[in-house]
Amino acid sequence: MNWFSWENLRPRGDKFMWGIIVVLSIWGLFAVYSSTGALAYQKKAGRVEFYLFQHFGFLLAGFFIMLLTHSVHYKHYLRFSKIILFASYALLILTMFFGSTINNAQRWLVIPFINLSFQTSDIAKVALILFVARELAVRQDDIKDFKKGFMPILTHVGITCMLIAPSNLSTALVLFSTCMVIMFMGRVSIKHIFYIGAPTLTLLTIAILVMLNTPDKYLNFGRLQTWKHRVENFNKPSDDPNETFQNDHAKIAIADGGLTGKGPGGSTERNLLPQAYADFIYAIIAEEYGLIGAVIMLLLYLIFMYRAFRIIFRSPKAFGALLAVGVSFALVMQALINMAIAVNLVPNTGLTLPLVSKGGTSVIITSFAFGLIMSVSRYVETEEPNEPNEAESPSAENVLST
Q1: Which is more confident, 5 or 330?
Q2: Which of 89, 329, 335, 382 has its CA 20 to 30 A from that of 40?
Q3: What are the helix (H) ranges across 313-356?
Q4: Which residues contact 377 (CB under 8 A, 6 or more apart)?
Q5: What is the mean pLDDT of residues 125-138?
Q6: What DSSP line would sit under 196-252, residue for residue?
Q7: Distance between CA atoms of 224 and 163, rounded to whole angstroms?
Q8: Distance (Å, rounded) from C-alpha 165 to C-alpha 186?
């Protein structure tokens, strides 16, 4: 079977979505160049162009991977979903024992010889969404059965999220929520989702209350102290300016931006705000492009999600529909949380802004995820509802109907 042809490498599918991807990438390139000045003076002797070219290189590589991914029919990824998922388990376990610690979080593995690090949770996130979409598509005959349809999928969701949670709780929670959304769209019984969702939310609430009322000396395991301090200091005045330093300067950046902003490269808070090029890049965008620019960026992600939903209801195959909704929901949810952190609506979590924040392998993995969505967009128009695939997946219309 011919899976790929170089003739099919040019961008196809929803042109509006391709446009949003290009705009976000270019905007991110400008934002990274502007926000890495202080980092360049600290580590690269003031050569501010270093991180510009570095990020540009990763964007080019990511765009090529996006094109390559979207050129392969999305149904072929179904075959490898289990292999990728189990490989992600191995990577997550390796990270727990041998991962590199950056900013008090052990989330990275370093690739030998080339000394390039990557977050294994990024791979696990895409792998789990692929697996859940596949299982929902092939288990439609038993999807209302708790033991045959729901539990086999939930088991892998639980394993993946528990492996991610110790070092990256926010990603685990977003991923768990995404999987619940995919299951809902895949006709899993709402009663079964409630059986799992309600106890999980209750246990999480109890755990937070216990953590907040436990002295720090008893919270010396993993990142418990970090989680506690983030929740305690969220929107809480403090006598110690170091405890609210990030949030305070993010607010200053947004306030200084006003309606129209200071213009590209005009930020002053970029020299003071930690992680201005990653976790808080949205605050720098608000300072340089103002409220208008901040709202436009928000709308770009929301429009992308809307266009993804349009693909979903045009897809004649369940796997394609569920894959598109899962990946797009995860990416847009990550973006919304990052923005909410910058404007101080939620505590800090460490989630970056997809395609905009500075990154290396994260840009590559995010590009692969966007490529999966565009693969569905590309091939959905050429399929017929009764065309079989490897999983004999039912039509999306039947799966997504309630």
Answers
A1: 330
A2: 335
A3: 318-342
A4: 13, 14, 17, 70, 311, 324
A5: 91
A6: HHHHHHHHHHHHHHHHHTS-GGG--STTHHHHHHHHHHTT---S-TTTTHHHHHHHH
A7: 16
A8: 25
Q: Domain coordinates of the chain in residue numbers?
A: 6-400
Report how far residue 371's alpha carbon sits from residue 70's, in angstroms, rounded to the nearest whole number. 5
Q: Which long-range contacts (CB under 8 A, 24 or more apart) does 246-252 make?
A: 246/273, 246/274, 246/275, 246/279, 246/280, 246/348, 247/344, 247/348, 249/273, 249/283, 250/280, 250/283, 250/341, 250/342, 250/343, 250/344, 251/344
Residue 233 pLDDT class (50, 70, 90 cuts): low
Angle at 229 between CA 235 and CA 362, to 5 degrees: 90
H or E element in which residue 171 lies: helix 169-185
**What are the tokens at 108?**
């990275």
Distance, CA of 61 to CA of 64 (rounded, Å): 5
Q: Is 107 helix (H, G, I), strand (E, B) or coil?
A: strand
Q: Which two tokens stand for residue 267?
A: 């930020």
Place of tokens 């290009």: 22
- For 370-396, the pLDDT digits (tens) are 999 999 888 875 554 444 344 444 454
Question: Which structure tokens are listed for 306?
Answer: 């809307």
Residue linked to tokens 């292999």 = 83
pTM: 0.85
| CA neighbor of 393 nearest in space, from 74, 49, 58 | 74
CA distances from 1 to 113, 132, 352 (A): 36, 25, 38
Which pLDDT score is estimated for 372? 92
The type of residue at 31 is: A
Task: List CB contacts of 197: < 8 A, sequence separation 6 or more.
Answer: 180
Determine the pLDDT at residue 317: 64
| Main-chain phi, psi angles of 119, to 5 degrees | -85, 115
Contact at 8 Å (CB) between 377 and 311?
Answer: yes
Q: Tokens in use for 335? A: 């973006």
